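question for whoever is on the cluster today: can someone run the full assembly for these? three chains, 689 residues total. i dont have access anymore since they changed the login thing
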Amino acid sequence: MGGPVIAQVIQYIQSYLDTRGLTPGAAGNMFWVLVYIMLVFAGLSVAVIAMNWLERKILAHMQVRLGPMRVGPHGLLQPIADAIKLLLKEDIMPAEADGLLFWIAPFVVVLAAFTVFVVVPFGPTHAITDMNIGILFMLGVSSLSVLGIVMAGWASNSHYPLIGALRSSAQMVSYEVAMGLAVVSAILMTSLNAEGTGTLSMIGIVQAQLAQGEWFIFKFFPLGLIAFFIFAVAMVAETNRAPFDLAEAESELTAGFHTEYSGFRWSLFFLAEYSAMIAVSSIAVTLWLGGWLRPFPNFLSGTTWDLVFSLFPGVTFLFLAAICFYNTVRMPKHPLFRIQTIGLAGFGVVLGLIGLVLFVPAVSTRVQDIFWFTAKVAGFMYLYIWYRGTFPRYRFDQLMQMGWKVLLPLGLGVLILTASVALLQDKIWHP
Amino acid sequence: MLIGGILVITCKNPVHSALALIVTLLAQASIYLMLYAPFVAGVQIILYAGGIMVLFLFVIMLVSIDRSVRERQFNSQWVVGIIAATALGGLFIAVYTKGKNIFPEHALPVVENDNTQKIAIMLYGQYMFAFEIASLLLLVAIIGAVVMAKKKI
Amino acid sequence: MESMLHITTLHYLVLGAALFLLGVIGVLTRRNVVIVLMSIELILNAVNLNLVAFSRMWGGLHGQVFAIFVITDAAAEAAVGLGILIAFFRNKETVNIDEVNLLKW
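^ ran it for u. tokens below:
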């Protein structure tokens, strides 16, 4: 009696696990969507933790000092120690603060920062979903984080957070306009193919770059480069990072809008800031730097070049493992350092094993797209840290002046010039 | 969405009302997605929820300083207001029950993937004049808002 | 699942009418000027919902294009309205609509 029921149940479960008919965005299959969401969330958390360590180490090395060295070998366990400290701190709420807003402001910011990753394309079929208004969705959701910041500043009911929140949100809103214009001129370039149909979907943008044979940053040189430059500056200002971090710099306004937040809630803001950085970097990589495409996809094509470029993931991890082993050898030979030396050697061994696994062709073909995308986003993260270590801070009126008086006309000019050049080359669809 | 709307008009604290309005606008965007209008949904999120509501929150923060003093939150003419709204509601109910049969049972068109392209063709082709007038309107609104809020003209 | 009722255009129109009513009640009964302006935004949203629902019913995209125009106009009008509010607040230090009675005889 239970036979046919069990067979039906098994068939039902199997219909969920069947991936043959799936395209990205096939919303009929909730199971795989959940799996992808879990994977992206886990990857993002690992990336944020790695970013924390990388920022402190790289900034320290740029300032000719060593950075955290004690907590793990070369400070590798420092982010974990920070996370434990933040979780154990007392959760303070100011007495006159608006309870509801104080509670939900960090969650709104985190929600906005994480929802953006629903459309980020890690590969031609590796996205959680592929909306055909992908880029519009990303711009819209990242503008929702402004609301969270305004709520956080208001709810703290003290003047430092309020001023910090007002300044921060004014800055974010101003640079959203410049971002939007740069994005529009990149999307204009997607429509320069034979049928004349552009697309707003993130996967479609990268496929347009593949079809047109060049990354959009090099298209109509120097227009693509200027558009990319506008977006790069606007994206640093959008995420409130140096040199535009007047609203949260410690020497200016105590800590801006998150002054009154402690412990876990502060770590949520921190998480949201790094996720927003990764999100806007993904937009920049997708729109201008060719998403998941390996360098020179059309120029150096052919199976031998494909093979050469497919060795990159494994080689990268082996290189990192070699650095680990080199530093293991250079560790001080003192009995108190024995655990750290063993830890570093173990980390090196893990990296080496990952590198060797990535040489296997079955894994390597699947990992290619994700690797190139992640490598480009990692390059952007390094640029973020580099900016923080190098540039002095902009004053607030200089910041607003640059956003409205410099970037906005520049963006409009690039848009008009791109459209006219494309029209002169007779590539734009006209009825 | 209705709960958001009710909260907008009943909260004592204007910041809570603004929050409820944001929730309503986001729900509205998802209803646009149900109506197969993804571009309008995206525009709604970017402009309304991400732009206009930030403006409202700024002004609320600058303006309502003593928010705990306001005890009475309803107007002096609230009775007339409720009567007028009831009359309007009655009108709506009458119209919708009489005209219930002219709406088709099932929605006809097929889902297309180029909604944005079609809207763009229509916006820049047929509605070009309205588009230019809208940009002129925005310019006038910017100048007007800046002049109104300046300290010295 | 066969007994699930289809969501016809009428449902969207009723939802739009309900939102419109809520907005009208908000405009007519609240004291705080900012909440009155937010209720006006509710009214405009209800109109947009009607437009897009009808555009779906007839299959053409005119409703959606006009909805975009309405959203643009709502932004402009919210900006100007809030500017007026700030100018008024600077003079009178209150956001109470009952006290906007300088022209009353």
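summary bc i know u wont read the tokens: The mean pLDDT of chain C is 82. Helices of chain C lie at 9-29, 33-58, 62-92.
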